[in-house]
Amino acid sequence: MFTRVVRMNCNFGQANQTCKNINDKVLPILKKQQGFVDEIVLVSTTDPNHVWAQSFWNTREDAERYNRDQYPKIREMIQDVLASEPVVETYDVHLSTSHRIVAGKAA
């Protein structure tokens, strides 16, 4: 399994709108992507303008296809609530109790 983490700094007071945009606009697109597994969205308790969106994918190739084919459009959709360019990081998943991943089994 593979994950993409998108760290976003929102305009002041726009974290809730960012989460709403992800739920209403981004999630329907994600659910249609080959290899998409799950999405987790977090809002910081120490910086309420900081949102972390983490998507889980069956393979790195699935995530890379999404990044290439869909992410630029999604980035544009949420542009108006962001204070700066999102930072995207990728990881192999080595353990997840909710996805039943065991160390050494990551894609």
Can you walk me through this structure?
The chain is globular. Strands 2-3-1-4 form a 4-stranded antiparallel sheet. It is of the alpha+beta class. The chain is built from 3 helices and 4 strands. The protein starts with a strand and ends in a 15-residue tail after the last strand. The chain has a single domain, classed as 2-Layer Sandwich (Alpha-Beta Plaits).
The span between the termini is 5 Å
Q: Gyration radius, to the nearest Å?
A: 14 Å
Biggest sheet strand line-up? 2-3-1-4
Overall structural class, as computed from helix and strand content, comes to alpha+beta
The helix content is 25-40%
- Given as residue ranges, the uncertain stretches (5+ residues, pLDDT < 50) are none
Major sheet size, sense and barrel closure: 4 strands, antiparallel
Shape estimate: globular
Number of helices: 3
User: Mind telling me the CATH class?
Assistant: Alpha Beta
Strand residue content: 25-35%
Helices and strands in order, then pairings?
Layout: E1 2-9, H1 15-31, E2 36-43, E3 50-57, H2 60-69, H3 71-77, E4 87-92
Antiparallel strand pairs: 1-3, 1-4, 2-3
